[in-house]
Amino acid sequence: MDRMPGKHIIPKILALIMAAVLWIYVMNEQNPPIETSLQVPLEIRSLSTTLAAMDVPDEVKVKVRGSRSLIYGLRPQDVKAYLDLKNATEGKYTAQVSATLPNGLELLEITPDTVTITLDPISSKKMPVEIRFTGSLPPGMVVGKVTADTDLITIQGPRSLINAVDRLVATVDVDGQTTDFTASVPVTPLNKESKKQEGVLLNPSNVTVNMNLVQNVTKKMVDIKTILSGELGPGIVLKSITSEPDKVEISGDPKEVGKIDAVYTEPVNLSGIDKNVDREVKLQLGENITAARSSILLHIEVGRSVEPAKPKLP
Questions:
Q1: Over 90: is that where the pLDDT of 56 sits?
Q2: Which helix (H) or strand (E) holds 258?
Q3: Which of 70, 193, 245, 270 has the fewest CB atoms within 10 Å, measured from its CB?
């Protein structure tokens, strides 16, 4: 019987220590720690729904260290890089880039580790859609009346991008068409350089356009006449009103064109005019009638009335 049970403890402890050291040595030799860098998409987290983040880098570089087996199995989607914008407000904002890693990996470096972005308020507005045509119709055919299922499109997105939208365009391909047809076409937001404005949402994003094609078209030059509404303020008189151009070429069904001697503008409201102004005014066209232009420029000249001089009393 062993009367000294503790005499074997120290050798056992030493054996465990040696085993641990040997295991670490073997692991370092067989599966040593190595480093690697990955290009990781940069996510936005906790941003207010009333703000949009602008000028955000698409990716950042994340450098990590881990065992060779972990590194060899590592994929870019296993690493998450993000900006926490929970308390961010409108304007320029510098944020720290953070990252989450799989267990067993050590984060060494994020490049860049901070980014400066712009936080823009989300806004919306309504704009009319302009219908355009592409392609060629057969000889003797022209576009007659054109209607769309909606007049106004809602644009939503960062305020600065919405303000950059100059017009909305829907283009219909009429190539080879010989009869009336309907087409669903996408609406494209264009900036002042006539390039597509990215970063905004349209609702609806498509419009349904009803195309009326007219055969045996007659063309004719007619006068442009202005329709006025409202009244000038006290003491203001209308001196002249001229249109540029003063005539327009119309085309359409021969019977309809033959009845037209002049094309009228939409009513021009004179209320509130107290100085010379230029106004772009749309033309009112009848059914199956088209014009070389849909609007004209009006030059409105006003002045102040002169009260007659009172006779001097002897």
A1: yes
A2: helix 254-258
A3: 193
